[in-house]
Amino acid sequence: MLDILEKYNILEAFWMTIRLTFFSAIGALVIGTVLAIMRVSPVAVLRRLGAFYVNTVRNTPLTLIMFFSLAGVGIVLEVSLVDQSSSTSLRDNAIRWAIVALAVYHAAFVCEAIRSGFNTVPLGQAEAARSIGLTFGQSLREVILPQAFRGAIAPLGSVLIALTKNTTVASVIGVAEASALMKVIIENETASVAVFLVFALGFVILTLPVGVFFTSLSRRLAVKR
Amino acid sequence: MKARRIGAVAAAAALALTLAACGSGQPAATGGGGDSGLKIGIKFDQPGMGLKKGSEYSGFDVEVAKYVAKELGTSEDKITWVQAPSAQRETLIQTGQVDFVVATYSITDARKEKVSFAGPYFIAGQDLLIRADDSSITGPDSLTGKKLCSVTGSTSAQKVKDKYPGVQLQEFGTYSECLPALQTGGVDALTTDDTILAGYAAQEQYKGKFKVVGKPFSEENYGIGVKKGDTAMCTKITDAIKKMISDGSWQKSLDANLGPAGYKPGAGNPPTPAACS
Asked: Is A173 helix (H, G, I), strand (E, B) or coil?
């Protein structure tokens, strides 16, 4: 078993998993925050737009979004995210589209997590903020959002863990992350329970500390009321 | 109290694991053919080799499987077809969920450690499928700077990465997903076993759009996978393959399934099945 694992660069594959997670988490946080703000904004069109995005994206399988991003938009419609003349354009294009797909998909979940954070802020605070003359933007920035984020830390942690595991879907468009390497090993060495366990362990090592960290963070940063 | 409850859960989980492990050690319930029926693993998604369309099964692998079943004394309607995706073939055989597997199954040393092979019944080679109007690719030597498409983790994909570093490779989950990219010029060629390529080229919706280059650069010996050490079964299947080749059915079914794409089997075909060990 060990000699099999030595032949393959498992750490490199998990490094790709980590990179995918890192960049798409940032993307998802940005898009998700914007969506959450849209969903509580006083403008009805924005509210509906935000709700439409969340309901559409959240209910579409990630595999579809992933494949459609690269094959549909990236290759057939020829929207390239890389310099076409580069010698690694195919690989880089796949990685970047994977990050886009992961960010777009998880943004819907981030939005809902943050919206649940909004609900932890008592309505009276928003009313008080408006009554002392703050605009919607100001009250959001100074009063609501800081508390909302602190209330949303635990669900955001869950989203991050799900995101980490969902990076395996990127193998459907050929990104060389952990599950793609697992497919290679299975193809060459035939499937065995040990191979599955090694990769499962890899993901536990990645996600368990994230869970512990976010739980303690949510306790430390909880708004005392 | 809480600790004890957690302990009980852990014990239940451990029990579930050992049960799962036991499952894989159980012997096959059937096997050997006869009137009890046969369960045969094939590909369901490989046109020309093993394809399921509605309740109809077609392809060269299917024909071989039917012929072997007939020789084992099982009539066609007693065959249960089981889908055997590449990654699950060993497991299906080891756990006795199928009696044998005929699914573009290349004989390799790593696989021989888990299952036994009868055959080869066919020798395929890795080849390239290109757009019909593309004259810039004439074989593996003219690939530098080109973009290829294959399936994530497949042997074909790995070979391209190892042997042709100047080539870019896009990997998808299945070969069919490569075809739109090939059609629109996102990639320049699809690479895998020539049998599979011929099957795609012959498909109704792609007729005349693609062509197989016809310069194979590897040798894949397709065998029929049986339970490891089941020499009796293996010998019977080997005899059936030999008979199929000698009485002309082999050639006939090859022409019927892969002929429409203008496919000619490479050197070494029909092969001489090796003795069972």
From this structure: helix
User: What is the chain A residue with the closest CA to B144?
Assistant: A87
In chain A, which residue's Cα lies nearest the Cα of B153? Answer: A184
- pLDDT value of residue A62: 94
- Give the distance from CA B169 to its chain's centroid: 22
Contact A76 B184 (CB under 8 A): yes
Query: Of the candidates B117, B71, B150, which has an alpha carbon nearest to the alpha carbon of residue B224?
Result: B117
Task: Average the pLDDT over A185-195 and give the result.
Answer: 77
Please list the residues that pair with B225 across neighbouring strands. B101, B117
Our measurement of the distance from residue B251's CA atom to the centroid of its chain's CA atoms, rounded to an integer in Å, reads 19
Tell me: the pLDDT tens digits for B59-78?
Answer: 888 888 888 888 888 888 88
If we measure between CA atoms, which residue out of A150, A60, A162, A163 comes closest to residue A114? A150
pLDDT of residue B31: 45
Chain B residue with the nearest C-alpha to that of A94: B170
Which pair of structure tokens corresponds to residue A60?
A: 């579409």
Q: Residue B153: left if φ>0, alpha if ψ -120 to 50, beta else—which one?
A: left
CATH number of A2-221: 1.10.3720.10
* Domains in chain B, CATH or no CATH each: 34-124+220-261 (3.40.190.10), 126-212 (3.40.190.10)
Residue from the list A75, A91, A193 with its beta carbon closest to the beta carbon of B168: A91
Task: Note the pLDDT tens digit of each residue in A64-82.
Answer: 999 988 888 877 777 777 7
For chain B, the average pLDDT equals: 80
pLDDT category, B119, cuts 50, 70, 90? confident
Q: Which of A55, A67, A13, A33 is nearest to A148 (CA)?
A: A33
**Given A174, A191, A193, which is nearest B170 (Cβ)?**
A174
